[in-house]
Every structure is written in structure tokens, then in C-alpha cells.
């Protein structure tokens, strides 16, 4: 039985739109790294900021839950990757129909015995009523009252996702494995966690909006349900463990075959755990890669790297010596490729990546395991329970050994790691320089007003066809201060605000393309549009200021887009498509766009790639794109069905994931992408394409910035002027500029070295003259000097001071000489202490003296017996620190 197909057919027959699974990488959802539930791709519909393509939808959604990684292998049911069957209603049917569909499907279409089914409903609490409605519907459907349990808010209430927002009670269907399973208590029911009862389907009734104080009934109520494919498969096959189902059979069989060829001394429980971890993680690995995740040391890439390494480690425990994950990947892709074609498309890329990761981690595991096992033996012999967090951090930092793996191995040996202390070391060590571009979205304070307007006054966008349009003002918001706006009837000269029109030619910021500028005007009045946004689907907000006259709600106006501004943006947007095509041509089809920003004068294009483009790669990309510009290829835009777009190879990016129809931008016969942005009609309109910069912005994620048209020409002209200016200044031909600069650089370095040598010699001579230098003097000599007041002091850093000290010791033939030199360099005090070997043999230790001197300077110090250094933040204490060092040496 194909459960997926049966489920989707059932709901298709009940007027549900069937949609393909969304990516495991969420779109525009900063709250999670990966798609964790079937409803997650539909959050914009539940929040009311986008309109669903249909009020009834059903999907089989790929999901990944990071929180379950550590539980996999230890239980019968925990998985990281799983498939969630779900049906959704957006203001359509509610509890009665949802309950009927769920019970009807599992009993009459999957064939489960209703006698083995239990149900849980919300019992109320925390100012929320008991869900009498759901309870009554279950009884009406044939579930006896004694097999319905009532659970509290923590178990049977969902949301809100933030501090406020939509939420509601849940109800669940449980399968009873029978009284001989689990705790065997006569009172056992779904509230018991003994394992006898397995939750197979959860139904969420989104009926309230929590405003921070009260739960208010929503006028439009929604349904969100989820049934785990692996769990229902276990029930249908009469298995208590998801790992015993046909979904895992081939992968587990192959893993066991590989383990038999190995050599291990695991117990039966440990062996079973290892097999399950590998079976789960091997599925997750290839699904993550197929959706564009690449192994890295942070974010989603770290999750992928972690499960690859965890699978490899358990493979080693089973005695599997050679790389093995791709053998399991072959099985997975064969089993799932039909349902998820991207697995097949990404197969070769995934196999190379996984092989590289296995090879890299096998070395890491070998080195790190030796260090960790040594630490474990030491812990056991000293009868300590906790490993030193410094040791765990050294494993992580030096050997690349994942801390989760360290913790897991410690747990297997009944030992522990203090994660708070480990994280303390991590925070001290890691400096995150990367710009935080995600996970920081603020909710527009006017969102409720926009939602209401979207219901009553949806805005028509006519900007693909027209750049000026006669329309009417339907709402005005005046800016009071900062982000505060209030609805008003009019805007007067000089006042800033937002204008909403009945129809608009202004393109709003979306898919990386910035919003249009222009003007909204009528006789005697004009509003300058500085930006256009879509805060809620169907609402276009024109932000700006009144330049003259007064704008009033209801006015008939002309909306006019800045044509030049739109044209420049359209050129750059079309250029992103050409760049995407060129990158995939030069670097390989595994290149995927991960973001873009299209402005008037330039654009940036972020992409995921497993390789770093070389200089010649970037040159070839530029040549390819400029050749297409010279060809003046046709840019064709058309709407079609999702299926046909997929059939012709259109690349799906961000904004048009769902809907019966999608918008395809096609350039000649080589580039096809789903895109809602504005574009030129022919590539020749771009004029010229030039890359400004290329570099890394994260693990396997890179960014190209580029320009087109006159902006590219202006850039090249500025560079030409700069080159000409340098040529004239140097007095050489342009072709000789590099050679001349190299000569100047070499001359500068030589002069700098000579100056440093001169400064060191001058400082040495100054000190020697102060102490009446005599090489025949055999007594103890302590030469101490504060160079911060000398003429060449500002040029002497710590290395220079050390050179001065070395020269002085050499002149005294290394006999009973101590040198104490201080200086203030870059506004910070520095103190150096040096001593000849005969003084060190006599017990002198410069490092100990430097440590105490550093305390006086407001910092620290240390070093070897014959050479040490101190530093700090108190330059005014330098003389005091020098005197301390001199006294300590004299005393010794």
C-alpha cells in the first residue's frame, strides 16, 4: 500500500489542492533552521499575511527535527527526518469535518480497527474552556467516551508561535498496542508514556487570537493536521518500532551486512542503537543535501555535518572500516527518488560531498578518539564524573571533534560534560564577524490594520503592463514619530506617510528586488513615493512625503512610476538570472541561489557552492554573460502551471512556491526561472555586465556584487581615470604601473628596515651612554630605561625593544647582564626583561618578575627565565613597573 498516494487521493476527492512538499530549508521563516512540521510552509496563510491558493490543501511534507538527534537510536519512534501527512483548512471546514476525515481515513481507507483507537482532547484551563465540541464530535463518530482522555494545555493546546497570535486546542488519535504492551496497568491510557499508546494523528484547531491578555475567537478559523508516515506505517505493519517497517528494511539490511564484515564488541542493545542511528541519519543526509544544505561549521550546514559524523562514528563502532554512507544513499535514492526527484538530480553531487566528509571525519575521529579515551581513562582512575571543559574544547577546536559526539561518548561511559562552561570557552574563542542578515525580523506594528484592508480593499497590481495608471486613494496613514503611524483622512504638505491605492503600477519590494519610486498626483497635489512595500499579501504600501497640495482619502489620482529607476532595476534583475545560469555553467549544476538584492546602481547575488571560483572562472562568467548581452536574446515572461514549469526545467526559487499558476522568466533557451520580478525585454538592454567583487559570506555560501548598463560603464570610466592618474603620477606608461609599484614597495620595505635598524641602534647607544658602557666591566649590570620620552620611542614596538636588549647583551659578552626596557607603543605600555644565562643559572626568572610588573601596568605578563614581557592599560605606571623589575633583580 502506498500510504502517501492513498492519503493525497482521499483529500483530493474532498476538494483539497494537492501540493508538493516544500523544501527542508524554510522560505522566509527565521524562527527555525529547518522545516519541522507539515504546517510550517503555510505559516503566512495562518498569520494572514498571504492568501492561500485554495482554502483546502493537503501535502506530504518532508520534515527534520534537530531536537530529536540525541534521542534517535535510544527509542522505537524518534527520527530526525520524517514525512508528515497533513490536511489544512483556511477559513473553510472546521472541527466536525476534520474529525470525520481523520477517523474515516484511518478506519475505512487504511483499515485500522476502531476498537484499537483512543482519542485525547483539550480539558481546558488557564482561562480557556474545555473543548466540548471536539469531544462531542468524536463520540458522534463512534469513539466510546471511555476511550477519550482529556489532557491539559501543555499536551493539547497549540501556540501562539510568539508572545501573541493565532492558537487553539488540539485533539489526537492514538493507536493502542494492547494490554500486553508497556506498563500493563489496567488504568493505562494515552496520558501514560510507557509506549503502549502511539500518537498517530494530531489535529490543531486554530480558533483563538491571543492578544497578550485574552484569548479572542478568530472570525476565520483554521485546521492544521499532521500524521507521521513512519508511525502509521508501523501500525499498519503491526510493528511497535518505526525501524522495523518496510521504509527502513533495505537500509537496515545493508547496514547489518556491512557490520557483519566488521569486527565489533558491542552489546545487543548498543548494536541495535548503532544500526538505527545510521538508518535514520542516512535518510536525513541525502534529503538535506537535495534541498541545498552543505556541510559547514554553523547553521544548517553544521546540523548536516553533525549527523554525517554521528553516522560515521556509529559505523566505526560496528567495525565498518571503509566509507559506507553512499552505499546506503544508493538504496535511499532508489526507494524515494520517484516521490522526490531532487534526490536523483543531486545524486552525484551528494555522493561526492558525503565521500569527502567521511574521509575528512575518519581522520578527525581517529585522532580525537585517542585523546578523548585517554581523558576518560584519567577521569575513571581519579573517580571524577566530569571531563574538564578545556579538554572538550581542545578536542573541538584542535581536532574538529564535535562536542555533541564528545558528550555522547562520555554518556556511554557514565561521565558528563558541563556544557555551560564549554560554551563559555566557545564564546571566548569564536568571534562572529559575519553580518547577521537573518533571524531578526520585526513584526510591523500596523499588521492588523493591513490584514483588515486586505480583506476589504485588496490592491490590484498592474505594474507588469503599465508604468502609470489612473486610480483612487483607499487609505492614508500619517507618520507620527519613528515607526508609529495612524489612519487619517488627509496628508498635508511636508507630512510623511503611507498611501494605499485601489490599483497600482508600483512594484513592491519582493524576491530581493527593491520597491519602485515615483509619484502619486492630482491637480494641485503631489506625493513623492520613496519606496513601495507589501506588508500583507494583496496590500501595496506607497511610502513617502507630500511635496505640494493635500492628498485626501477617496481622491482620484495618477500613479506614475519613475521609468528610469524601474529600467535600471529591471536590467539588474535580468542580470541575476544570467549570472545564475553562468555560475551553473562554469561551476556546475549543483550551484544554487541562496539570496539576492537588486538595487538601481548594483546588485548582489548569493549562491551556495562547494568550490571557490578562481579568477579565470569569474573572467569566463563575465565573458559568457556579455556574449549573451551582445546576442540580444529574447526575455520572455509567461504564466503556466507548476507541473509544466517543472517539466521545462524552470528553477524554482523563493516567492512562487505555491499556487495553481506560476510566472516563468525565460531567456532564449538556456535560462528558465520562476520569478515575480520585473525584467527587460531583451538581454541587449543590459548594455554591459561587470563583476565588482566576489567572496565568502559563510560556510559554502558566496556573494557576487555586479553592475550593468551605464553604471557598469561609469565604473569602468572611474577605474580608467584612476589608472591614468596613477600612470601620470608615477611617470610611466599604464602597462608599467605594476612593475613600478613593485619597485616602490620594495624600496619602501628596504627603507623601513633600515629605519628600524637605525632606531634600534640609536636606542641602544642612548642607553649605553646613560650607563657608561664598558665591555671590560665584569660586575652585575642592570640596564633599565623608559624609552617613551625619547625621540625615537614612538617607532619602537616590542620586537624592536627585544632587538635593543639582545644587542646590549651581546656587547657585554653575555656576562651578568640584565636589561629592563619600557616604552609606550600605540598608547599601550610594554615592558621587556632580559637576562644572561649566568644570572638564570643563579635563580633569576624573568617571567615571574614580568608577571608581577604586569599587574602594576593593569594587565599581565610572563615568559621564559631569560626573556619575558609585560603589558597593560596604564602607561602612567611604566616607571613604577621598571623600578619593581630592577629591585627584584637586585634582590635576587
Radius of gyration: 35 Å
Helical element count? 25
The backbone outline, from C-alpha atoms, is globular
Q: Pairing-aware structural class of the strands and helices?
A: alpha+beta
CA-CA gap between termini? 89 Å
Total number of beta strands: 34
Stretches with pLDDT under 50, minimum 5 residues:
430-444, 654-658
Strand percentage lies at 15-25%
Mean pLDDT: 88
Please estimate the helix content: 25-40%
**What's the story with the biggest beta sheet?**
9 strands, mixed
Can you tell me about this structure?
The protein is α+β, with helices and mostly antiparallel strands. Helices cover 39% and strands 25% of the residues. The strands form eight sheets. Strands 1, 2, 3, 4, 5, 6, 7, 8 and 9 form a nine-stranded mixed sheet that branches. The chain has a six-stranded antiparallel barrel with strand order 13-16-20-19-18-22. A hairpin with a 3-residue loop joins strand 33 and strand 34. The protein is globular, with a radius of gyration of 35 Å. The chain starts with a helix and ends with a helix. The model is unreliable at 430-444 and 654-658 (pLDDT under 50).
Amino acid at each position: 500500500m502506498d500510504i502517501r498516494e492513498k492519503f493525497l487521493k482521499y483529500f483530493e476527492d474532498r476538494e483539497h489542492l494537492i501540493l508538493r512538499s516544500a523544501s527542508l530549508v524554510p522560505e522566509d521563516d527565521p524562527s527555525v533552521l529547518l522545516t519541522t512540521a507539515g504546517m510550517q510552509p503555510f505559516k503566512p496563510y495562518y498569520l494572514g499575511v498571504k492568501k492561500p491558493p485554495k482554502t483546502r490543501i493537503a501535502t506530504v511534507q518532508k520534515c527534520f527535527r534537530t531536537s530529536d538527534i540525541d534521542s534517535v537510536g535510544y527509542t522505537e519512534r524518534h527520527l530526525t527526518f520524517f514525512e508528515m501527512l497533513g490536511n489544512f483548512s483556511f477559513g473553510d471546514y472546521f472541527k466536525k469535518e476534520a474529525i470525520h476525515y481523520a477517523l474515516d481515513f484511518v478506519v475505512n481507507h487504511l483499515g485500522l480497527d476502531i476498537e484499537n483507537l483512543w482519542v485525547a482532547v483539550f480539558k481546558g484551563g488557564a482561562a480557556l474552556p474545555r473543548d466540548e465540541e471536539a469531544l462531542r464530535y468524536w463520540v458522534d463518530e463512534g469513539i466510546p467516551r471511555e476511550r477519550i482522555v482529556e489532557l491539559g494545555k501543555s499536551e493539547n493546546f497549540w501556540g501562539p508561535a510568539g508572545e501573541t497570535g493565532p492558537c487553539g486546542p488540539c485533539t489526537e488519535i492514538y493507536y493502542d498496542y494492547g494490554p500486553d504492551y508497556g506498563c500493563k496497568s489496567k488504568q493505562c491510557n494515552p496520558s501514560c508514556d510507557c509506549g503502549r499508546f502511539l500518537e498517530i494523528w494530531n489535529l490543531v484547531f486554530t480558533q483563538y487570537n491571543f492578544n497578550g491578555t485574552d484569548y479572542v475567537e478568530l472570525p476565520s478559523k483554521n485546521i492544521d493536521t499532521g500524521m507521521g508516515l513512519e508511525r502509521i506505517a508501523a501500525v499498519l505493519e503491526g510493528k511497535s518500532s518505526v525501524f522495523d517497517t518496510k521504509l527502513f528494511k533495505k537500509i537496515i539490511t545493508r547496514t547489518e551486512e556491512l557490520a557483519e564484515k566488521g569486527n565489533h564488541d558491542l552489546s545487543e542493545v548498543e548494536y541495535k542503537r548503532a544500526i538505527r542511528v545510521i538508518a535514520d541519519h542516512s535518510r536525513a543526509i541525502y534529503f538535506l543535501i537535495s534541498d541545498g544544505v552543505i556541510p559547514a561549521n554553523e547553521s544548517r550546514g553544521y546540523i548536516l555535518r553533525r549527523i554525517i559524523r554521528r553516522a560515521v562514528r556509529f559505523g566505526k563502532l560496528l567495525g565498518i572500516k571503509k566509507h559506507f554512507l553512499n552505499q546506503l544513499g544508493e538504496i535511499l535514492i532508489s526507494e524515494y527518488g520517484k516521490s522526490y526527484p531532487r534526490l536523483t538530480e543531486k545524486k552525484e553531487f551528494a555522493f561526492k560531498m558525503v565521500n569527502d566528509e567521511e574521509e575528512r571525519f575518519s581522520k578527525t575521529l581517529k585522532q580525537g578518539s585517542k585523546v578523548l579515551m585517554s581523558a576518560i581513562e584519567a577521569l575513571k582512575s581519579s573517580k571524577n564524573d566530569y571531563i574538564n571543559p578545556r579538554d572538550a574544547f581542545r578536542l573541538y577546536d584542535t581536532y574538529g571533534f564535535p562536542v555533541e559526539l564528545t558528550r555522547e561518548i562520555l554518556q556511554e561511559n557514565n561521565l558528563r560534560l558541563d556544557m555551560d562552561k564549554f560554551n563559555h570557552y566557545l564564546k571566548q574563542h569564536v568571534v562572529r564577524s559575519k553580518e547577521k542578515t537573518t533571524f531578526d525580523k520585526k513584526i510591523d506594528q500596523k499588521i492588523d490594520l493591513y490584514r483588515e484592508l486586505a480583506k476589504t480593499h485588496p490592491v490590484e497590481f498592474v505594474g507588469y503592463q503599465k508604468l502609470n495608471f489612473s486610480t483612487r486613494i483607499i487609505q492614508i496613514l500619517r507618520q507620527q514619530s519613528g515607526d508609529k503611524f495612524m489612519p487619517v483622512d488627509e496628508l498635508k504638505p511636508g507630512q510623511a506617510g503611507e498611501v494605499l491605492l485601489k490599483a497600482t503600477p508600483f512594484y513592491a519590494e519582493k524576491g530581493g528586488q527593491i520597491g519602485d519610486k515615483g509619484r502619486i498626483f492630482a491637480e494641485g497635489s503631489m506625493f513623492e513615493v520613496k519606496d513601495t512595500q507589501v506588508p500583507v499579501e494583496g496590500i501595496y504600501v506607497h511610502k513617502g512625503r507630500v511635496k505640494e497640495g493635500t492628498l485626501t482619502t477617496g481622491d482620484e489620482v495618477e500613479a506614475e512610476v519613475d521609468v528610469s529607476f524601474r529600467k535600471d532595476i529591471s536590467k539588474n534583475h535580468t542580470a541575476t538570472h544570467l549570472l545564475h545560469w553562468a555560475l551553473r555553467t562554469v561551476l556546475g549544476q549543483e550551484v544554487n541561489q541562496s539570496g539576492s538584492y537588486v538595487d538601481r546602481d548594483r546588485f548582489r547575488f548569493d549562491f551556495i557552492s562547494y568550490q571557490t571560483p578562481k579568477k579565470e572562472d569569474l573572467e569566463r562568467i563575465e565573458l559568457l554573460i556579455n556574449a549573451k548581452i551582445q546576442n540580444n536574446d529574447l526575455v520572455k515572461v509567461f504564466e503556466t502551471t507548476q507541473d509544466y514549469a517543472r517539466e521545462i526545467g524552470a528553477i524554482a526559487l523563493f516567492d512562487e512556491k505555491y499556487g495553481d499558476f506560476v510566472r516563468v522568466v525565460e531567456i532564449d533557451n538556456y535560462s528558465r526561472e520562476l520569478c515575480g520580478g520585473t525584467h527587460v525585454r531583451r538581454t541587449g538592454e543590459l548594455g554591459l555586465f561587470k563583476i565588482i567583487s566576489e567572496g565568502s559570506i559563510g560556510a559554502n555560501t558566496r556573494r557576487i556584487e555586479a553592475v550593468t548598463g551605464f553604471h557598469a560603464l561609469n565604473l569602468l570610466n572611474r577605474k580608467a581615470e584612476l589608472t591614468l592618474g596613477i600612470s601620470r603620477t608615477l611617470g610611466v606608461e599604464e602597462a608599467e604601473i605594476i612593475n613600478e609599484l613593485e619597485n616602490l614597495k620594495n624600496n619602501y620595505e628596504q627603507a623601513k628596515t633600515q629605519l628600524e635598524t637605525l632606531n634600534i641602534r640609536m636606542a641602544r647607544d642612548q642607553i649605553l651612554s646613560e650607563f657608561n658602557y664598558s665591555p671590560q666591566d665584569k660586575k652585575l649590570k642592570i640596564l633599565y630605561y623608559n624609552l617613551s620620552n625619547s625621540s625615537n620611542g614612538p617607532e619602537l614596538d616590542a620586537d624592536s625593544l627585544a632587538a635593543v636588549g639582545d644587542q646590549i647583551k651581546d656587547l657585554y659578552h653575555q656576562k651578568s647582564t640584565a636589561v629592563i626596557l619600557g616604552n609606550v607603543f600605540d598608547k599601550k605600555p610594554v615592558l621587556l626583561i632580559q637576562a644572561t644565562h649566568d644570572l638564570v643559572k643563579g635563580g633569576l626568572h624573568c617571567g615571574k618578575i614580568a608577571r608581577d610588573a604586569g599587574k602594576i601596568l593593569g594587565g599581565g605578563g610572563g615568559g621564559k627565565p631569560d626573556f619575558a614581557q609585560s603589558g597593560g592599560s596604564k602607561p602612567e605606571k611604566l616607571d613604577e613597573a621598571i623600578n619593581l623589575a630592577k629591585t627584584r633583580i637586585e634582590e635576587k
